[in-house]
Amino acid sequence: MGHPKHLERHLGRLRVLQRRLSRKKKSGSNFRKARLKVALLHERVANSRPDFLHKLSTDLVSRFDTICLEDLNVLGMIVNGRLARHVGQSGWAMFRGMVECKAEWKGKHVRTIGRFEPSSRPCYCGYYNHVLTLSDREWDCPECGRHHDRDELASNCGLMRSSSGAKLSMKASKGFLTRAS
Question: Is 175 left (phi over 0), alpha (psi -120 to 50) or beta?
């Protein structure tokens, strides 16, 4: 499921309405009408995000018994000018709260994976990829030859950790993963 981009969908219309509002005489009735149009569009954008997050969280909690969420450094991502608007409008904290609350109501489990735990670098065979950069979306394991998609691997590692209850720890000298007790 892709990002709905509620703000981007309405941004063009919002710019037009705000430009029209700025050209109106402040004490006139046309100014009040234009201000109402801008306010209604802002309200529509503001209400569409929680609506989408409620629908998505309800769907996930009803379909899965265990849901793994990764704890991300949101403030660090917002500092990046290219990601700031997309990250800011996603509402990840709101989504996490909704999932945890609905899972508790239905008796499901929510696991949170720490931001510093390896998630997209370890292979199933135990190899740990040290040279993986953020732009590398796919990689091949030199040990077993298995092809990995970074996002799928991160979700599967989260499930492996949550089902076994063990954390993965890295042996720095060999670059392999072992289960910590």
Answer: left
Q: Where are the domains of the chain?
A: 117-181
Tokens at 132, concatenated: 């993986």
**Which residues of 107-181 form beta strands (DSSP E)?**
109-113, 138-140, 147-149, 167-171, 176-180
* pTM to 2 decimal places: 0.66
- Rounded CA separation 6/3 (Å): 9
Cα 149 to the center of its chain, rounded Å = 17
Residue with tokens 């018994």: 65
Most confident of 18-32, 60-74, 146-160, 161-175: 18-32
C-alpha distances (whole Å) from 70 to each of 116, 158, 169 are: 10, 8, 17
